[in-house]
Amino acid sequence: MNQFSLTTRPDDLDESVGPNDLNGSGRPKDTNGLGGPNNPNKSNLLFKDYQNDHKFTITTQTSTGVEITSTGVRKGELYLADISTKLKNKNITSDIKVDTNSSLRTTITVDEPAPGVKAIFSFIFPDQKSGKVELQYLHEYAGISTSIGLTANPIVNFSGVVGNNLVAVGTDLSFDTASGNFTKYNAGLNITHADLIASLTLNDKGDTLNASYYHIVSPLTNTAVGAELSHNFSSNENSLTIGTQHALDPLTHLKARVNNYGLASALIQHDWSPKTRFSLVGEVDTGAIGKSAKVGLAVALKP
Hints:
Layout: H1 40-46, E1 54-61, E2 67-75, E3 78-89, E4 92-99, E5 104-111, E6 117-125, E7 132-139, E8 142-149, E9 155-163, E10 167-176, E11 181-193, E12 196-203, E13 208-218, E14 223-232, E15 237-249, E16 252-259, E17 263-273, E18 276-285, E19 294-301
Protein name: Voltage-dependent anion channel protein 2
GO molecular function, one term: voltage-gated monoatomic anion channel activity
Subcellular location: Membrane
């Protein structure tokens, strides 16, 4: 499912900002990514935490303030693991991750080297073409982000969003200097009104149109419904996903979704403590009842 995101950082570091992340004055909140009209509430409702793998995460913090996170994932017969460390010293944050693919990801973030500015430097070793420098600027009612690869013929990314707590519009562009062509151009519109958020995005160089909707039914029980309809112009295919969420109590949450392909999923999350979460996910193909249901399990511990 395509989602519009104005971010130029690696996927696993993406913390996009949407219009819902604007405060009452319309000024974007302080975040680690610049995003656009991607309706983050809808994305959380319909897609977040729905995984059919077995995942275990534990996070610890040393007396010097270094945060260490270890993650293990089982995908079928494949086992993956990584260890990441995060150290913050004044306005500089360093993230280093090592995984079982023998890759080393490093991200260095400098907050406020100048008012409203954030600088991000990232690279993946041993990929010599992965180096990237990004600059973000957040101002009242607007934000821009631009990045460039540290290669002879880099890819240049630009994203921008303008809006307030009611309406936001944005665009996301990527230009390959080697070929002289745009490799990505997306655009989006997001409208927020009371307990309803609606967005319209054009992705894949104008080939995919997404419309999404998120409605808060009951704030007291965190009950909400959402839907996303996607149309691909080249293949003339449509996809529809609808979902809902509800809190049984302050520590236990339920989510469910179904799409037009007959895949139905349900999720239950329980917080043992403010820093410990257990998640159980089940997925069944209603069009093929003979197939076994898929079950995913995730445990996150943070002593």
